[in-house]
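Example record

One chain of 344 residues, shown exactly as stored in the release files.
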Amino acid sequence: MTHPSGPQLPGTDDLLSIIRVQTEIARLGLDLDAVMALAAEASMKLTGADGAAVEIAEGPLLVYRATAGSAAAQVGRSVDAEHSLSGLCLRSGTALTSDNVEGDPRVDLTSCHQIGLRSMAVVPLCHDIENVGVLKVLSSRQAAFGTRQVEIMKLMADLLAASMYFATRCGRDALFHQATHDLLTGLANRALFLDRLRNALLQADRERNQAGVLMVDMDELKRINDNHGHRVGDLAIREFAQRLSSGARRSDTVARLGGDEFGVVLRPTASTDGLRASTERLIRQVQGPLVVDGQRINLGASFGAALYPDDARDINGLLEVADQAMYAAKRERKGQAVTGLTNE
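Predicted structure tokens for this chain:
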């Protein structure tokens, strides 16, 4: 096999860079989402890859829980552990490379084509003596990864595994929960939200019905933080998340996507009227005052909805429609008081 010229083992600069990554991981503490994102980004840069991903095992699947570079849009994607190089790496516990996916029977070629990769390297992630996922780098070039790159990835995987150990000591189930849920609210995170949305669209196609998605922007979080401090801001986020979750059905997925942004996957949704009814119910559920330390804080939000397949035929299009509807609602609320959207 032909690999790029250069040192066969990590050099001094590589090791110094890994030490810097280790320091940053230590600063992130128990925020496993951020640690996985950092590991993916650092692995991509240190190996000269086009993209990278952290994949966590979930039953028969490996799910992309953190991504970087050319794989950034793939968060939430899953591959079959029985028919992929990642799955073979997970089962064998050894680092593997594919210099050319087109001639490699071990790979999931359809997934490779969708991502646009020609070569890749994967190393196992070991948590408490069990392999729970893989760290993967990918390239649009053939034979992009040699011994040096694989050794760098092994070091990165060790750092990530150590962080996993300290983030959760309760085994694989707790690790998966930590990797798929928001630390502050306990809601699903962005990766799990996208995974559930992708599955909802597939289910809608199979059953020939519809699915809905809501994008939700919490009101005035910056003002709450500025006026009352971040402790109160965090309490407001948790209360808002609890209200939103309480108003959803058991079949729905409520997620915190970051900051003051939330999302809801509605599955199934029978019609436009059903989507509107769900939206109005959640609007009523989240609005109202929160009293903290004797201070009254009004909670509310702007909602935007989209229906599959009426509004869009893919995830990106559906989220764009819902986002635009949410921003339109926010602009309207700023211009005038809208009944049902504000408690002021």
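Notes: The mean pLDDT is 85.
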